[in-house]
Design brief:
Order of helices and strands of chain B: HHEHEHEHEHHHHEHEHHHEHEH
Distance between the termini of chain A: 37 Å
Radius of gyration of chain A: 21 Å
Order of helices and strands of chain A: HEHEHHHHEHEHHHHEHEHHHEHEH
Number of helices of chain B: 15
Low-confidence stretches of chain B: none
Mean pLDDT of chain B: 95
Shape of chain A: globular
Mean pLDDT of chain A: 95
Oligomer: heterodimer
Strand content of chain A: 5-15%
Distance between the termini of chain B: 38 Å
Structural class of chain B: alpha/beta
Helix content of chain A: 40-55%
Structural class of chain A: alpha/beta
Shape of chain B: globular
Number of strands of chain B: 8
Largest sheet of chain B: 4 strands, parallel
Strand order of the largest sheet of chain B: 2-1-3-4
Radius of gyration of chain B: 20 Å
Strand content of chain B: 5-15%
Helix content of chain B: 40-55%
Largest sheet of chain A: 4 strands, parallel
Strand order of the largest sheet of chain A: 2-1-3-4
Chain lengths: 425, 381
């Protein structure tokens, strides 16, 4: 008898993301060919400021994640390693420094490779806004040195206390003003504030719809999974501020609502609801989604998808664009103290009816791994939720092992099952 | 001072460096004085000193990491793992305060974990600007130093006025100038001290009361400056890297053992620590801010400095007439990881031979390193 393999029931609307990303890269290249000055950026979406100045923006992590999901990132990493990078360095950064070397003609791609896909337009400016991750600093400096271009480093403050947010936002606004002056200098044009305001209307619509749709996943069974939302990050990161993102999220929200009405889950048979801490191994996104489906487990939420990108949509006021962006770049999980994080996560686990925690080690990212064990311990103490770590990395597939992931997930689910039995007794 | 006194002075330095936290705990008990630790690299110890407390720059110890692995992954750098480990084991609880200066995400993680796990210790992080080209960085630096100063005053139970801060700066400048004198002496007369001893001298300066260290250093210099140059054979080397923590003595011995004559360095527990004084004119807080912003040696943890690290290194290597450079890279040190390719490229362009040696908290087999270093020395001949 043929065995039916259970697979993740991906959101249909998510497939549109790939098309939008491809179109966006093609558009950036077209605009560069027409003589527009391109911006390369990492981290948080403060680069929307450059987009409003009519500068096409290439978001490094967005591009590399997209390529890694298709397993096309290796030439970038080879180029970085040929330059002297060691695999311990952040694989997002390492990959994009490789991309820079290729763009500069310092590393030659094998002629059999898709040159069009891997060759980027040269930037006129680099923006580092790696909120809370110090790696952004040397990364930005490396880019500026390679291309001999200016770099702007945004430095949001770490929020040790709740009361620090106001000062941090004011400080960030000051940086945005300085950045806008730099944009005016580079473009030779006065800044287009009206365009920024219009863009923020679309941003607010997009991120609000996304957050609402994600919140609908508190429903059991969850209509979408962490892997859908991970793919969907592109809409609020690389594509943010571009036309069409609001409509895309409208479709996503409708699809999620429709699934709830029809009782359709993201996993064919949801028995366990999990939370994902850390970044995911992009090259294994499909494999992981199906692996969880096969185990009747649904990862319903995660820090990377839910608590980093535009976490304060209610603070977006297009009439106060700088403050709007500042709140959404300063009040992110990575900049928050442990006390704050554990409180938010505990509430999150209750709201989403979480049974267990999957902590992705993300070997080359220290920022997302900073408090992993304390979070595991803290949630176990507060809510009695078991946790497991799994190896991997954002873009360096060499750190991932299927066998290890299988064994650890099995252990997690057995622990959850044992706890359920104890509760029944 | 008879030669045997060099040994005696060195033993005093070594005593505190070998088991720093044990020795400091004893010192605190004996002296009944408050003590505040600070992270390496960017925090001005003078502020703690001016509050009448003993400033201590946190050091990596040789202790095997055990409990710490329940708090941190193995792919964080050695000093981060080690400090979290000794902290959660209670070995830092004797400190009254602990002030970090934002260096990198790993260092900030250590601060956060220690803050949670050292409830009796005041733990703070000085968020000093790291991008030096931004507008208002001087004002921001002064504001942050003032905030930390106020907190240290509360901890110490006394005010830090300009006079006491200037006195502390003067005490630190004096110690730095003596360390530079020793550095210059060892440059002219290499192997006067094994390089591991030079490290011990600098590390002990980070741990002992400054005035006591200065006194011992003066004694040591008086003796050493009268010594005849030693006859040495080998290749002149420049040591670079190892931010935050001292290289293990085994590695330094190995470099000298295969015929390396270390004539200069830019290590944190070396030239970087004592290269630059704080100005004595004007407001002392402003002077500390200036040292941070305008007078830093090129460093990968800060941006917008007038010169990049690789360019600085090429100039320094040429000036020291070193034949080659050993880049000591702490495994998982991201700021260094991002600069190494540029350093490699610049050294190659300048025809300066170099070798990169990766180091770890847990000393791995040195045989492989020995072979690589031997081959490098052969190349230099």
């Amino acid at each position: 008898m043929e065995t039916q393999v259970k697979k993740a029931n991906k959101l249909d609307s998510t497939s549109l993301i790939g098309q939008m990303m491809t179109a966006s890269f093609a558009d950036i290249k077209r605009q560069a060919a027409e003589g527009k000055q391109v911006v390369w950026a990492n981290g948080l979406p403060v680069y929307v400021l450059a987009r409003a100045a009519d500068m096409p923006v290439l978001h490094c992590e967005g591009l590399v994640a997209g390529l890694a999901a298709k397993r096309l990132e290796k030439p970038f990493q080879d180029a970085a390693e040929a330059f002297g990078f060691l695999p311990d360095a952040c694989s997002y950064a390492r990959s994009f420094i490789g991309a820079a070397r290729i763009t500069m003609g310092d590393y030659h791609l094998d002629p059999s490779m898709n040159q069009d896909l891997l060759l980027m337009p040269k930037p006129a400016l680099y923006v580092n806004s790696a909120g809370g991750c110090g790696t952004g600093r040397p990364w930005g400096e490396a880019m500026a040195t390679l291309f001999n271009i200016p770099v702007y480093h945004f430095e949001p403050r770490f929020l040790w206390n709740e009361s620090d947010l106001k000062d941090s936002v004011a400080d960030f606004v000051r940086q945005e003003q300085e950045f806008i002056a730099l944009l005016e200098k580079i473009t030779g044009r006065p800044y287009d504030w009206n365009r920024l305001k219009e863009m923020l209307v679309e941003v607010k619509r997009t991120v609000t719809l996304r957050n609402e749709a994600m919140k609908l996943c508190q429903h059991i069974p969850s209509p979408a999974s962490f892997f859908d939302w991970a793919t969907n990050i592109a809409a609020v990161a690389h594509l943010i501020g571009l036309p069409g993102t609001g409509d895309l999220l409208q479709k996503t929200r409708e699809e999620v609502e429709q699934r709830i009405a029809q009782g359709i889950g993201a996993m064919p048979n949801e028995k366990y609801r999990l939370y994902w801490d850390g970044i995911l191994t992009w090259g294994k996104i499909g494999v992981l989604a199906n692996k969880f489906a096969a185990l009747d487990a649904c990862v319903v939420a995660g820090a990377y998808t839910h608590l980093v990108w535009w976490p304060r949509p209610e603070m977006i006021d297009p009439e106060k664009p700088l403050e709007s962006i500042a709140y959404n770049c300063c009040d992110i999980m990575l900049l928050r103290s442990y006390e704050h994080r554990i409180k938010v996560l505990a509430d999150f686990c209750r709201e989403y009816s979480i049974d267990g925690l999957v902590v992705s080690e993300t070997q080359t990212c220290r920022a997302f791994n900073s408090h992993a064990f304390m979070i595991m311990d803290g949630l176990a103490r507060r809510l009695g939720i078991p946790a497991v770590t799994i190896g991997g990395d954002s873009c360096d597939i060499r750190f991932y092992s299927d066998a290890q992931v299988d064994t650890r997930l099995q252990a997690l689910l057995e622990t959850i099952e044992a706890r359920r039995k104890v509760r029944q007794v | 001072m008879p030669k045997s006194n060099i040994k005696e002075v060195m033993n005093k330095f070594r005593e505190v460096v070998d088991k720093p936290y044990e020795k400091l705990r004893q010192w605190k008990k004996a002296n009944e004085k408050k003590m505040a630790g600070c992270s390496p690299m960017h925090f001005p110890e003078e502020l703690i000193h001016a509050a009448g407390m003993l400033p201590v720059v946190l050091q990596e110890t040789d202790e095997t990491i055990t409990t710490g692995f329940s708090y941190i992954y193995p792919f964080f750098c050695g000093i981060t793992r080690n400090l979290i480990d000794v902290g959660v084991k209670g070995q830092l609880s004797f400190l009254d305060g602990l002030v970090y200066a934002d260096i990198c995400v790993q260092n900030r993680t250590a601060a956060s974990i220690l803050r949670q796990n050292l409830p009796s210790v005041y733990v703070d992080v000085a968020q000093l600007p790291s991008s030096f080209t931004r507008k208002g960085v001087m004002e921001d630096t002064i504001k942050e130093l003032d905030r930390i100063k106020a907190n240290l005053e509360k901890l110490a139970g006394r005010n830090i006025d300009d006079t006491s801060l200037k006195q502390s700066i003067a005490a630190y400048n004096k110690n730095r100038s003596l360390l530079r004198r020793l550095h210059n002496l060892c440059q002219k007369n290499p192997r006067l001290l094994p390089y591991r001893d030079m490290q011990v001298i600098v590390q002990s300066s980070m741990l002992m009361p400054k005035e006591e260290h200065t006194q011992l250093l003066e004694k040591l210099l008086a003796e050493m400056e009268g010594m005849k140059p030693a006859s040495v054979k080998g290749s002149r080397l420049f040591l670079s890297g190892h931010l935050c923590q001292s290289p293990k003595a085994d590695i330094l011995d190995l470099i000298e053992g295969v015929g390396g004559i270390i004539v200069d360095d830019d290590l944190y527990t070396g030239y970087r620590y004592y290269a630059i004084d704080v100005e004595m004119n004007g407001s002392p807080i402003e002077a500390l801010a200036k040292r941070h912003l305008e007078k830093s040696l090129p460093v990968p943890t800060r941006t917008g400095l007038p010169m990049r690290w690789e360019k600085y290194l090429v100039d320094r290597v040429k000036a020291s007439k070193a034949q080659g450079i050993v880049v000591l890279m702490v495994k998982f040190c991201e700021p260094h990881l991002f600069y190494y390719p540029f350093i490699k490229e610049a050294l190659t362009k300048a025809s300066i031979p170099h070798i990169m040696v990766e180091t770890e908290h847990e000393v791995v087999s040195l045989e492989g390193v020995r072979t690589r270093l031997q081959a490098f020395m052969e190349m230099l001949k």
